[in-house]
Amino acid sequence: MACLCVIPFWSLAKFALTSAARTRFGKLRHTGGQQKRQCPEDHLNHAQKSMLDKIAKVVARFNEIEKQMADPEVMADYTRFNELAQERADLVDLVEAYNQHQKLSQELAEARQLSDLEEDPDLIALAEEEITRLETELSNLEKRMRSLLVPKDPRDDKNVYIEIRAGAGGDEAGIFAADLLRMYTRYAEMRKWKTQIIDENSTGVGGYKEVIMSVKGKGAYSRFKYESGVHRVQRVPQTESQGRIHTSTATVAVMPEVEDVNITIDERDLEITPTFSSGPGGQHMQKNATAAHIVHKPTGISVKIQSERSLTQNKRLGIAIIQARLQEMEEQKQQASVSAERKAQVGSGDRSEKIRTYNYSQSRVTDHRIGFTSYNLQAVMDGDLDPFIDALTIADEAEKLAAE
Question: pTM of the full predicted structure?
Fold first, then answer.
């Protein structure tokens, strides 16, 4: 029994298009035609070529990584192999997008050439349709590649602490702080992230002088980090009896969760000197050099431990104490960094320092950093922040690319 195969019209049309193109190009080559075949890069502007040149270097590195990973010596080195595998995983999306871009660019060059050379109106129409489709796909692909080129903030996947403080405006500023807390809570809930109030200092009118909320979820910092700064509200306060519009502010600071510090000491950085114990300790301790004087050479931290009965025990305890001191120093450094970042984020809370304005009478929310405005204030206050965050992310990526 014969099998009836149904081939979609567009597949046949595309086959006809490419076949006709090949035939037409063959005729040109055979007859010595003056028109030459376009290169895929012919339609690119300077910015596009610059971007593709950068990605080509990434592709070269990717190929080198794969070559190294196939080396038996590297495969036997578990640590080195894992490092390369992680680097490869970080690059693979960009490399795949680049390869797809090269393929589509070649197809676009062929379609344009056919459109220029073909005489059959039907094939010209098919070529024009193909050109439009390919140009759209390439445009979308280039946006994705630009985004993938931007170095990822290593903190983007972290959980966050959001600190909201009432600024200028008295009780109304405290009520606005509560409104912002509700807005961020709703946004987190939409993304299935967990929230928890860590600390709060409430007012007697349903507001907050200060409130700190934790948000736990992958990518929380990448979305909330653009909320840092002074937020300004313009509306008639609940306590206003004469219907006058007031302007108040609240400051927002978004801080990534600080990782637990895990200090590992290289014994080559330690200078360990056995010494005799001093003071009371018994005849045994006096006859043997059981005390340990340990210096951590990079920092100069030193300890002398003689409380244990053996040199080994005293060395172990001394190293543990140095490790604890180094961990405390690192934690203080991180906390100082977070504190400095918070201070830079919130400013003074003055009305003129705003990053975003919420105007209730006009149902308008405007982000002054990028000039982005929404006229659906209620939706924003209910947690619909993605249009703002997406626009800020694009602007941030464009600025970083321009700086390279």
Answer: 0.58
Q: Which two tokens stand for residue 198?
A: 């860590």
Contact 253, 228 (CB under 8 A): yes
Q: Give which of 384, 355, 386, 359 is closest to 371, Cα–Cα.
A: 355
Strand order, beta sheet including 354-359 = 194-202, 208-216, 160-166, 246-256, 229-235, 354-359, 364-367, 372-374
Percent of the chain with pLDDT over 90: 32
CB 88 within 8 A of CB 65: yes
In one letter, which amino acid is 269?
D
Domains of the chain: 40-149 (1.20.58), 160-260+345-403 (3.30.70.1660), 267-336 (3.30.160.20)
State pLDDT tens for residues 232-242.
999 998 766 67
Is 278 strand, coil or helix?
Answer: coil
CA dist list (Å): 23 to 26, 109, 191: 5, 16, 54
Contact between 164 and 208 under an 8 Å Cβ cutoff? The reply is yes
